[in-house]
C-alpha cells in the first residue's frame, strides 16, 4: 500500500516531534531544513541531535534542503517554523503545494511588525482561504511526544472538515487530538502563554514560591483571556487545552524554553546572553513586544506583559517589576478578568 506523504517545515524540536506522530500514522515524512549538516544527519543516522540526544527517528522520516522535493505531492504540509521565519518559509513553499493539500501550522507567536496571527500570514502567502488552514496547539512538550508519552492537543480551523482531517492525521493511541472552531482563541492563547512562562521563570529564579506561581498563572490567564476576547475569541477556549492546559505545562516544566530563559534573566544575565545560551528560538521574547503593541491597539490592560516588556527591552530589574505588579491599584477579580 502506498503511504501518504507529509512535509514538515522546518526540522526543529516541535517539527521533529510531530513528524514522529505522522510517521506513526503511516505517513512518509520529509522534513525541510536549510541546514545541510542537519539534513545529512537525519538522512544517514536517523537522528536530530541538536534537539534530541537519544532519539532514533523512524525510517519513514527523511530530510532535504530542496523545498520543491519536500513539498511536491504532499497531502499534508506542516509549518513548524519560528514566527519570525514563517512568512519566508511559506513564500518559498507556496509554488509547490498541491491545491488540495491540508496545511497545518504549529507555531505559537505573532509576526513581528504586522502583529498578524500565523494563519493570516499563511493565508496571504499561500493565496488560500484562511478557513481551510489549521492550527495545532496545546500542552505538548516535544521531549515527551517523541517518547510517546500521553499527550492531548487541539486542532482549530474555521472549516470543520479541515479540522477533522488534521485530527485524523495526528491522532494516535498516545497523542489525543480534539477539534475546535476558534482559531483566534487557540492562536492567541498559544502565543501569550509564552510571556507568562517567561514570568514564571523569573519568579522561580528570584526564589519565590508556589503562592507567587499560582498567582502568576491565574492572572496570566486573565490577561490571555482579556486580549483574546478583544480580538474576537471564544472565552471558553481559554479554559481548554490551548488555554489553561498549555499555560500550566509551559510555566511549570523544565522542558519549557521560555521558563528557562526567564530563570536566567532572574540571575541577572542580559537578554542577548540568555538567547545565545539557549541556542533555540524563545518565542516569548518577540511575543512580549508584539503583545505590548496589541494591548495598546485593542485598549486592553496587560500588567504582567507590560512589566516583562520593561524587563526585556528597557533594563528594568525583575524584582522591581514584581514589586510594581504587587503594588497595583485595588480591583475586583471577576470584573478584572475581562476589563481593565
Task: Explain what the structure shows.
With 340 residues, this protein is an alpha/beta fold. The protein folds into two domains: 4-181, 3-Layer(aba) Sandwich (Rossmann fold), CATH 3.40.50.720; 190-338, Orthogonal Bundle (N-(1-d-carboxylethyl)-l-norvaline Dehydrogenase, domain 2), CATH 1.10.1040. It contains 16 helices and eight strands. It has helices spanning 13-24, 36-45, 67-71, 86-93, 118-126, 142-145, 160-170, 183-205, 210-230, 241-252, 257-266, 271-278, 283-297, 303-314, 318-326, 333-338, and strands at 4-9, 27-32, 61-64, 76-79, 102-105, 134-137, 151-156, 175-180. The chain has an eight-stranded mixed beta sheet, with helices on both faces. Strand 5, helix 5 and strand 6 form a beta-alpha-beta unit. Helix 8 packs parallel to helix 10 (241-252) and helix 8 crosses helix 13 (283-297). It starts with a strand and ends with a helix. The model has no long low-confidence stretch (mean pLDDT 93).
Features:
340 residues; alpha/beta; Rossmann fold; N-(1-d-carboxylethyl)-l-norvaline Dehydrogenase, domain 2; 2 domains; 8-stranded mixed beta sheet; 16 helices; 8 strands; globular
Structure summary:
With 340 residues, the chain is an alpha/beta fold.
Strand content: 5-15%
What is the CATH T-level topology of the largest domain?
Rossmann fold
> Tell me, what's the shape?
globular
Q: What is the level-2 CATH architecture name of the largest domain? A: 3-Layer(aba) Sandwich
What oligomeric arrangement do these chains adopt?
A: single chain
Number of helix segments?
Answer: 16
Spell the H/E element sequence: EHEHEHEHEHEHEHEHHHHHHHHH
Largest beta sheet: what is the strand line-up? 3-2-1-4-5-6-7-8
Distance between the termini: 58 Å
The CATH superfamily of the largest domain bears the name NAD(P)-binding Rossmann-like Domain
Number of strands: 8
Amino acid at each position: 500500500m502506498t503511504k501518504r506523504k507529509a512535509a514538515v517545515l522546518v526540522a526543529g524540536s516541535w517539527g521533529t516531534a510531530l513528524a514522529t506522530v505522522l510517521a506513526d500514522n503511516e505517513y512518509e515524512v520529509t522534513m525541510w531544513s536549510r541546514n545541510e549538516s542537519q539534513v545529512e544527519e537525519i538522512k544517514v543516522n536517523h537522528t536530530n541531535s541538536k534537539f534530541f540526544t537519544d532519539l532514533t527517528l523512524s525510517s519513514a522520516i527523511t530530510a532535504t534542503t530542496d523545498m520543491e522535493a519536500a513539498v511536491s505531492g504532499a497531502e499534508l504540509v506542516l509549518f513548524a517554523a519560528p514566527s519570525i521565519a514563517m512568512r519566508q518559509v511559506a513564500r518559498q513553499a507556496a509554488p509547490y503545494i498541491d491545491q488540495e493539500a491540508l496545511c497545518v501550522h504549529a507555531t505559537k507567536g505573532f509576526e513581528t511588525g504586522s502583529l498578524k496571527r500565523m494563519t493570516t500570514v499563511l493565508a496571504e502567502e499561500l493565496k488560500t482561504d484562511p478557513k481551510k488552514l489549521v492550527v495545532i496547539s496545546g500542552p505538548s512538550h516535544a521531549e515527551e511526544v517523541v517518547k510517546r508519552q500521553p499527550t492531548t492537543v487541539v486542532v482549530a480551523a474555521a472549516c470543520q472538515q479541515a479540522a477533522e482531517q488534521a485530527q485524523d492525521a495526528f491522532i494516535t493511541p498516545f497523542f489525543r487530538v480534539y477539534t475546535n472552531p476558534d482559531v483566534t482563541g487557540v492562536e492567541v492563547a498559544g502565543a501569550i502563554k509564552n510571556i507568562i512562562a517567561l514570568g514564571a521563570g523569573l519568579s522561580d529564579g528570584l526564589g519565590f514560591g508556589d503562592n507567587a506561581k499560582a498567582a502568576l498563572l491565574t492572572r496570566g490567564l486573565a490577561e490571555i483571556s482579556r486580549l483574546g476576547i478583544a480580538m474576537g475569541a471564544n472565552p471558553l477556549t481559554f479554559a481548554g487545552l490551548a488555554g489553561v492546559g498549555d499555560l500550566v505545562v509551559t510555566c511549570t516544566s523544565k522542558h519549557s524554553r521560555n521558563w528557562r530563559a526567564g530563570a536566567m534573566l532572574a540571575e541577572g544575565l542580559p537578554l542577548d546572553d540568555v538567547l545565545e545560551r539557549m541556542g533555540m528560538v524563545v518565542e516569548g521574547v518577540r511575543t512580549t513586544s508584539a503583545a505590548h503593541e496589541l494591548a495598546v491597539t485593542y485598549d486592553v490592560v496587560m500588567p504582567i506583559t507590560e512589566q516583562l516588556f520593561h524587563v526585556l527591552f528597557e533594563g528594568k530589574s525583575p524584582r522591581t517589576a514584581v514589586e510594581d505588579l504587587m503594588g497595583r491599584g485595588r480591583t475586583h477579580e471577576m470584573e478584572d478578568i475581562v476589563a481593565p
